[in-house]
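Task: sequence in, structure out. Protein: WD40 repeat domain-containing protein.
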Amino acid sequence: MITDGRRRRSQVFLAAAIILAAFATAGRADSLASAQLVPAIAVPLPGYLQATADAAFGTPFTRVTQADAHLGAGLLCGKERCRHRYSSAQAWNADQSLLIIPIGCNGMCFLDGRSYAPLFRRWRSGECEWHPNNPEQMICVSRSTISIWEPRTNVDQLLYISNGYRELQFGPYKGNPSRDGRHIVIRAVAEGGGSVAFAYDLVARRKYPDIQLDRLPGRNNSCTISPLGIHVACFQHLLIGIDQAFIFTIDGRLVQSWIEHHRPGHGDMTVDADGSEVYVGISKSPPDLYQVIKRRLHDGAVTVLTAYGEAQHASIRSTRRPGWVFLTYGGDPANVARRPTWAPFAREVIAVRIDGSGEFRRVVQTASVPHDYWNEAQASPSPDGSQVIWASNWGVAGGPVFAFVARLQWPAETTTASQPVRDR
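Result:
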């Protein structure tokens, strides 16, 4: 007969074996072809600003927000959530000295980008995204203006006042600047009442020709500039439940129509090794249904990066760590375990090489269970890929949603074929 004490010791030994196995693989390159599901390890919610380590992979991480609490420096988190905005929105400024928490905080709340201590908060209307190269600046769009704003000093430089356009939006919500910080895309209502999008050069203060969104099928969700400022990507939603993408030149000439549903979606754009601009995300259409794919903007060519699985969001905000995409997986670990042909990841963040080689790195288990949109983990890396922010209800559906930051260390000898390992 097995006593309770022996059973508990067996459980401890099993858990220790799982952790040791994870540590053995955390510091080296892994292949998707041989990857196996790592069971979720339940641990108590870490304390606020208490450094801890992922129980499965050993990755150091910190909870950087509280629920229904004053953080200090005038920052106040709501009781339901206090988190970053989205996977493809950059949370850190260019030198990673500031980290923004805009959801559930009392305004735009700024933390120290490395210690996560609360620093200051600001309030302004419209949408702002970090300038990719100037750490003091954000690019902001209001209903009628485009400006450069410095959060620390609260100084605003007006670049553009609309003449005949109204309801200006930066995306909305999924817009990013080009990687040199020169170009953005604006969605607006034209003087005649039609919905349009246009690129804008922040340096030359030049507006590009309108793209007539009303001539595209469905309703526009968002538009954004490509990393090199060459293309404008617009995403349309059809009432029958299909989401399509249309790729234009910066001057408004249509070059690609991706009419399949989300092929891909929930993703991000980058520049590939051959200089091509690509969109990496989750396909929701055959022949690569529920696989992560890379699709070239200029000709639509597709490269499959992962097997069928539960990937929810893809982020390439690690703009100074080229060649990698950070994937957030949802799903039920027990369900994934029963499907050996699926990608063996559930409630986990991984980094995958986008060259199609299958090389990947495990980052952290999210400990987030399904509830609603704001409970999604939506992991987003810092510009150099050394930090990753994600959201989690820590296993309590409907409970408060916190923000967590994992810290990664990449070998210094290369910036394209390196791997994250645990901080020492």
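The chain is about 5% helix and 35% strand.
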